[in-house]
Design brief:
Blueprint: H1 5-9, H2 17-31, H3 39-52, H4 55-64, H5 79-87, H6 97-101, H7 107-114, E1 132-138, H8 140-145, E2 147-158, E3 173-175, E4 184-191, E5 194-201, E6 210-212, E7 224-235, E8 244-247, E9 263-269, E10 276-278, E11 281-289, H9 290-295, E12 297-303, E13 306-312, E14 321-324, E15 340-347, H10 354-365
Parallel strand pairs: 1-9, 11-15
Antiparallel strand pairs: 2-7, 3-6, 4-5, 8-9, 10-11, 12-13, 14-15
Helix pairs in contact: 2-3
Length: 368
């Protein structure tokens, strides 16, 4: 079903590029997921704008509708279906809408890329092992100074016996019988255009053209083993709550010498009894006596680097916020520190001695 991009953005079909841009900005701001908006709606808005803001794509859309990028023929196959189908089988296929709708050589260019007879074929990329995500809780003090943590992670690692090849050391290689050592095989497919042949990566040798004569006795030919690994995680000073640190090549190993996955460490900060963190700044409370608020004084304040004295000016009111420059958290991947903010609370005594009551009464008489 053709999509009405003009209706999605709420503009007329004769709308100018500036009107389209203004409508997009308004709707994108309203439906942005980070602002609590609908992610599906936000994607629809982006899709509409990507077409209508481009003169060539807009012209094609006005002529053919939204199906110009998802043409459907007999059998229900779209260009996107064909593209995904061939790409999933190791084909590196690229085409432009101009190839379909003129200016790029017509349908013949599409055929020359998808099917043999001038088509391009490539070996399949090495398989990548799975990425792993772990959660790690640290204290605010550890986040302030940076810390090295160790975890034990059970995962697939490269087989040390065969070094990931999957073959028993010294056993040699033999030619793959499936592809006759070519690493590729020809496959015939029937489509709504007719019957076509294509060259795909051999599924038995994964494009290598050869197989191990004898499987590794440790990993049974997979090139990896399931084991527990002790991993050191170096968390930098200034790391924040819910921040994710990437450790390359510490995820799971792939089969037969593929690319190692990555490890992602999601940091969680423990709640601190004194400080509250907001990005690079720290917030804390300090309680002073009524006399200190009226007359002024110096009080000790705890910082991440030790105590310091804070001067309380005479006449300080409850709720007053003082800033201690550079006493916050280190700025990650940058220089300097954030600030520390101290909020003042005035302590009101619940019980007074007789002498204190007399003094308060005298102050009351002085209208204090």
């Amino acid at each position: 079903m053709s999509k009405d991009y003009y209706k999605t953005l709420g503009v007329d079909k004769n709308a100018s590029k500036e009107e389209i841009k203004q409508a997009f900005r308004k709707l994108a701001h309203q439906h942005h997921p980070d602002k609590g908006g609908d992610e599906k709606k936000f994607k629809e808005i982006n899709e509409a704008y990507s077409i209508l803001s481009n003169d060539e794509k807009r012209q094609q859309y006005d002529q053919f509708g939204s199906d110009f990028s998802g043409f459907t023929g007999q059998g229900g196959m779209s260009w996107e279906d064909i593209f995904r189908n061939y790409q999933s089988q190791g084909q590196n296929v690229e085409f432009d809408l101009g190839d379909i709708f003129g200016g790029g050589g017509g349908f013949s260019n599409i055929f020359s890329q998808f099917f043999n007879g001038g088509g391009r074929t490539h070996k399949a990329r090495k398989e990548k092992g799975k990425d792993i995500v772990v959660d790690l809780e640290i204290s605010l003090e550890e986040a302030f100074s940076g810390v090295v943590k160790e975890i034990n992670l059970k995962k697939y690692n490269v087989c040390k016996h065969c070094k990931g090849t999957g073959g028993e050391p010294g056993s040699g290689k033999k030619k793959c019988s499936e592809c006759d050592g070519q690493g590729q095989v020809q496959q015939t497919k029937r489509t709504f255009f007719g019957t076509f042949s294509q060259v795909i990566t051999c599924s038995k040798c994964f494009g290598e053209g050869e197989l191990n004569e004898k499987e590794c006795k440790e990993c049974k030919g997979t090139g990896r083993v399931h084991e527990i690994e002790n991993i050191k995680i170096d968390l930098p000073a200034g790391v924040d709550n819910e921040q994710t640190i990437k450790i390359p090549s510490k995820g799971e190993a792939a089969k037969k010498g593929g690319v190692q996955g990555d490890l992602y460490v999601r940091v969680h900060l423990k709640q601190h009894e004194y400080f509250t963190r907001k990005r690079d700044d720290l917030y804390c409370d300090a309680e002073i006596k009524y006399s200190q608020a009226v007359l002024g004084d110096k009080i000790n304040i705890l910082t991440m680097e030790g105590d310091l004295q804070l001067k309380i000016p005479a006449g300080t009111e409850a709720g007053k916020m003082f800033r201690l420059s550079g006493k916050g958290m280190p700025r990650l991947n940058s220089y300097g520190h954030g600030d520390q903010y101290v909020k003042i609370h005035i302590k009101v005594p619940h019980k007074l001695s007789r002498k204190q009551e007399e003094l308060i009464e005298r102050l009351k008489e002085e209208e204090l």
